[in-house]
Amino acid sequence: MPNLIARFSRGRGAPALIDQVMVSGSNFLTSIVLVRGLGLHEFGKYAIASMLLLYANASQMSFVTSPMLTIAPLMEGKEKRDFVNGMFSIQIVASLLLLVIFLLAGAISRVFTSFYSIPCILSFAFCVGTFQLQDWIRRYYYLYNKAKLAIVSDFISYFVQLALLFALWRFSALTLFGTFLVMTLTSLAGFAVGPITESFRPGIRNLQLAWARGRGLSRDLLITSQVRWFGVQGVLLIGTGIVGVEAAGGIRAAWNLAGPVNLVLAALENVIPIRISEELKKNGTAGAFAFVKRVTLLITALFGLLILPAAIFGRPLLRFLYGPAMTAFYLPMVLLLASVLVQAVAIQSFYFFRGLHDTRTLFRANVSSAIASLATVYLFGHLWKAPGIALSILSSQVVLVAYYALHWARHRDELLLLYPSGGMIKLGPDDGISETRIA
Question: Considering the domain boundaries, does residue 430 fall inside one?
Fold first, then answer.
């Protein structure tokens, strides 16, 4: 496995895999601690909050991190450093903005419902803000090939978090408020590794520079991320209204059995977009496509082997990890595992078209996927409950892959001309590259 990742990541592989093993393993064990410590109903509340956290993170990734990982590898020296410092400034503003938004949204929600307590709302809002800062730092380290420092930051943010939550559970002191508070403190501590080890220079000038270079890509990816999030996480929120909070928690817990697959996907997320930019710079669109094709074929075969045992032994695994009540979610688990396999293919295509700055295709593909989800979630959910929600998610991912494949088949020649093999890439004042849009 490390050799596989290393083959496609130019030295970033083994540390990236080690890091992601720790992150995914910690998240997986944390979910077990929370299910057992909070109970399925309170864990359902946590699952809903985690969907909102993932929404905020997806928005942050699209608006700040993804443009940075796409544009910065095309730069050198001081130009690159100034651009990254500017993106760091934007990240600070984005985190503060998310904190304020979640505080206001939580305050408004209290007018209509007491679903979450005021302490939970406050702690979760700070959790959202600090989580984005730590996530940016870990991506920064991979951009500069400093994966060992990313491991240090993630160890504090994820493993220490797990240890603290486990201790609270064993002392019968684990609450939803305490969970969000621990997440806030460990994310903040993980982020602090960055300023300690690096000489960041956030400021208005660098912020303006970075915004001038990346605003087009940031804007387009942010819009796309909203649609993309709705196609999966949004459907789970809708599904919660159909099947109830406990069933939503069960679906989320069952989804965690895709841990090995998500582990590799997350490890690749730290290196594949950077490698695609490097391939575009060196070998053009043709080289980048060949690279993505190899990655896609290998991870499809690998993930199939990882998912098969989980599908076969799913019932005893659910019973052992979460308790007898979770065996009712075996069929949703199988469908969700299948959707993760299809999603893995879709993500590689997403990275490819993002590298080409073909954001129109990304938007249309994700709109098609979201429409498929929305068109099926109510029907499938009412017909088959939790399995129906999982089937709706699977159908949306199939539509996404089909759209990407059809677009490449129809516009291959135009896309190849965007980056001629071995051609120079011209950085523009808007998003780093002179853009060409495929209709």
Answer: no
